User: Which sequence fits this backbone?
């Protein structure tokens, strides 16, 4: 999958695993950690949410990222989604909110 940030600051690549039970596991080149979450069908497609952690250059905790996306299948093997990633520090304060778009292909 590819993640594109709406502000043009970066693009990331990664993997999603969606289970039949509604669990989601995600990895990406940005945080280089694993995100854990859930997904469900919606009338128009599907919605997924997950959380992952981000670390600074000294490998110290920087913030959690809370991701919330709405997706649609674009074929039997591809989907796109759009939503936000909200960075939340250890004190619960919002550090930033980023709009992102995901394009993905089954392998």
Assistant:
């Amino acid at each position: 999958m590819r993640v594109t940030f709406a502000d043009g600051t970066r693009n990331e690549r990664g993997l999603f695993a969606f289970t039949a039970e509604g669990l989601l596991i995600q990895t990406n080149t940005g945080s280089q950690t694993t995100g854990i979450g859930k997904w469900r069908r919606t009338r128009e497609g599907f919605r997924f949410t997950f959380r992952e952690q981000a670390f600074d250059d000294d490998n110290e905790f920087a913030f959690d990222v809370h991701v919330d996306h709405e997706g649609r299948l674009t074929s039997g093997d591809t989907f796109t989604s759009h939503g936000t990633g909200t960075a939340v520090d250890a004190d619960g304060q919002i550090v930033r909110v980023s709009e992102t778009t995901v394009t993905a292909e089954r392998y």
Q: What stands out?
A: The first strand starts at residue 2 and ends at 5.
